[in-house]
Write a structure and sequence with these properties.
single chain, 368 residues, alpha/beta, five-stranded mixed sheet, 11 helices, 44% helix
Length: 368
Amino acid sequence: MDIIYRLRVIFWFLVVFIWGIYLYQYISEDIKESNKNKIILNTKRKTYEPIKIQKKNDYYQASPIISITTSPAISKNLEEKEDRIMIAKTEEIKDIAIPEEHYKYEKSGNDIVEAAKEKKPRITVPDGFKYVETRHFHLYVETGIDAGEIETEIEKLHGEIMLDLIAFSPWTRDEKVHIYLAKTSQKYQELSQRPPWSGGAANLREKKIYLYKSGEWFGILAHELTHIYFDSFFGGYDKSPLWLSEGMAVYIQVQRGNYYPNWLKENITLLKDGNAYKLADLIMIKTLEDASDKSVKLWYAQSYSLVYLLLKIQQGDSFYQFCKRIKEGDSVSKALFNSYGKPYTSLRALESVWQYQIKHGSLFEKID
């Protein structure tokens, strides 16, 4: 028994010893590998070679949702860094624009090291204008206009618009839109480079709106702000369906901007009399160029009434889900059914409801 006991002890000792050797070899390999891949975060060490970042004065134009641009064309209109890594595929340019949040800025004295630097837009105030920074806007008002009154009006308008569009433009908490309000049409044309018939203009990429103090300016501002807020959800004006973009812009113009133009009233009456596009044709229109003024106004009125209907019949966030599905590539019919459910099983079903409501229903009473 004594011999058997000793043999058992020796046997288990050898097992433990061999296991220890194996474990040591296994761990030592991991330790070596981790040392090779170790990220050193100690900023006190001064013997490392710093990365050299060459700053560019000019930036390449790129679509807001394209990360890599292959175009060598240089634009001098962009005043800020893009919020993405942007690589130019040319032999001459090797620079990489790194997003601001990737930079670290060290302050002197006992100040801490900041993880990011607040981005400040370059403010250029036109001659004869006063600049006011509000909670949601950079406002440029020509001398002779009460800037305080305008500030109050546009902030109230922003709050009204957000009742409908906050889910589509959460960035408004951090980014501001530039609004240039001129006193005369001539000054407006000088700033915007738009033709005399234009009453307002918007640069969606730079988030800038130009207009002048006409009797329609507030409604025009509501319309153009909607394009900036709503179309950004789809990635830009050229990405959003035209009927949905313009229909929503007119809806906000009427409902939040309190501006109901006569041409819209006249064309709503035409729709009620049965003069309308088929919805299948309406949503397929991608440009209004070369169309007659009469056809364009009818198309705008019908797009507005369709968006009005979709907003009024929604339950919960049906309209948001509808837009999200369209953004993701669903057809209008599929997005409609998956967001609204029965009886909106197809575009034809929606058209039947729309036709009834526009002629006999109480849904459109407010837009008479």
